[in-house]
Amino acid sequence: MRKITKILKYIALSFACLGLIMACNANNGQQNIPPSTENNGRITIGTTLKARTLDPADSYELAGLNLIYNIGESLYTYKLGTTELIPLLATAMPTVSDGGLTYKIPVREGVKFHDGATFNAEAMKFSLDRFIKNGGKPSFLLSDAVKEIKATGEYELTITLNKPFAAFPALLAFPGVCAVSPQGYTIGEGEFKPNELIATGPYKLTAFNSDSVTLDVFADYWGEKPVNQGVDLQIYAGNSANLYNSFLTGAISVAYQTFAPEQITTLLKDATEGKFQGVQGAGTAVSYMVLNRNQKPLDKPEVRQAIAALMDRKLIVERVLQGQAEPLYSLIPNVFEVSQPIFQTKYQDGNIALAKELLVKAGFSAENPAIIEIWYPSSSKTRSGVASTLKAMADQQLEGIIQFIPNAVESATAFSNLGKGIYPSFLGDWYPDFLDADNYIQPFLQCVKGSETEGCLEGGAQTQGSFFYNPKVNELIDKQRKESGMDIRKTAFADIQTIMAEEVPYIPLWQNKDYAFAKNDVTGVVINPSQSFPFWTIK
Hints:
By secondary structure, the protein is α+β, with helices and mostly antiparallel strands. It has 2 domains: 45-276, 3-Layer(aba) Sandwich (D-Maltodextrin-Binding Protein, domain 2), CATH 3.40.190.10; 282-514, Dipeptide-binding Protein, domain 3, CATH 3.10.105. The protein has 17 helices and 19 strands. It has helices at residues 2-31, 62-71, 121-133, 140-143, 168-171, 240-248, 261-272, 301-310, 313-319, 342-347, 352-361, 381-397, 411-418, 442-445, 460-463, 471-482, 486-503, and strands at residues 43-47, 76-78, 85-87, 95-96, 102-106, 146-153, 156-161, 203-208, 212-217, 230-235, 254-256, 277-291, 325-327, 370-377, 402-409, 425-430, 449-451, 455-458, 506-518. The strands form 4 sheets. Strands 1, 8, 9, 10, 11, 12, 13, 14, 15, 16 and 19 form an 11-stranded mixed beta sheet that branches. Helix 8 (301-310) packs antiparallel against helix 11 (352-361) and helix 16 (471-482) packs antiparallel against helix 17. The longest helix has 30 residues, at 2-31. The radius of gyration is 27 Å and the shape is globular. The N and C termini lie far apart (64 Å).
């Protein structure tokens, strides 16, 4: 009987332990259910980008602008996944006067702001005036171009420019020039509301916290409503490891911006094995090397040309970027029809023989080397890798005729010093304000004041640190800005690119590829060339 009693006790104890184990597992399973699998129709998205502000008049970073893109609406936008400009709060493309100074824009009827206010031309005028007059970071985009904005009808807006600007409609697609409710905002320098956004878009802002953002579908939205029931954005500020782990464990259903290159490599491999989806987009951000023509030995065009010939983009993309970019042979990325691979045609990649020939022609040798400092932001591992690769290539293949000295500098200091001419060369990148080839040319090459002797003293070329000065390029920039005909603009851009490859104020290096990752049960993930990421298509 004692044995039977002991056996029964053991059996009872075993069942109790088994019950505890099952209960623990059940509880753990409940805790690990990601929000997206609760079948409530909402989507959980993860990112490392934290928005500084949601005020459209002051937002000038990807994190804030992407949220504004989903909550607000501008007069024009881009057809999803393309660079094709289409009306949004406007109902048609502008009617432009003969002189190219006046734009008449019909605006949409039946649109409500998130606070119930009615949208019309007067509300759009208020929003654009506020963007200019409040003096936020991006205000120059309109203030430099616009002379006057009038509501010439309840649903007609008339904008007069200071001078012709063919790319102006593209500028009106910048997310920051979206319509905001006149009831919720005021016009006045520095009067911003960083923690709210009252606009007309498909989502209303419900919560804006340091580590999360909640968007709900706007019930009175004028257009086609989102395919999901709302978005919960989880922010892993600057921490790609947490974003990576959260995606792999199912805490988020979609991950976008930004992973480390090695993480992307692993995720892409897993995606090819069907574990989840990898979505790639054609990016429009470009990376380049600035060459300061006012500093020796870069004052000699042959030295600048020699560096262009030495540059091996394919090697850099594979070795430094792990294949997660495209070689770039013009400052204008290849998503634009006017882009021409002029640096590939003229210099090829890693053309050591030509580089040597040009350096010898400029008077340099192993005994008298051309010594050039390469500066880059200290926070960028990628640019550190590029500088090290260039140094190694020169040391190994050019027999000491040219020597590169890599130097890191804190980002804020770097961009403060760039226009002062402190750096002989600099590795930079550019995210476009609007999708037009002009935005890759005018900010880099135009010079308002300068001379052949002193270089550029005022203008984009001075600001970017190249100090490039060429009156012909100034004429061509003005020409393509004045002409709305694409054939004339294309010819002007071709001539500009040819001159740039000859004088080499900048060396284009690569254009980015953009990646997002999503669980297999998610559909509708789209990456726009503008690097805006639409939430409303995802379910």
